[in-house]
Design brief:
single chain; alpha+beta; 1 helix; 3 strands; 31% helix; 38% strand
Length: 45
Amino acid sequence: MKPGQLFEQFEKLAEKFELRIIQGKGDFHGGSCIIKKDKVIVINK
């Protein structure tokens, strides 16, 4: 499976679990968190 296809599957799965995905570049580690009662997955590009 190509990376783009894998990410699409990941997005669909996150949507089913009512998770929001945030992607960005920076000096941080990715992970999950809760921001103002919203479940979020943070991905470091």
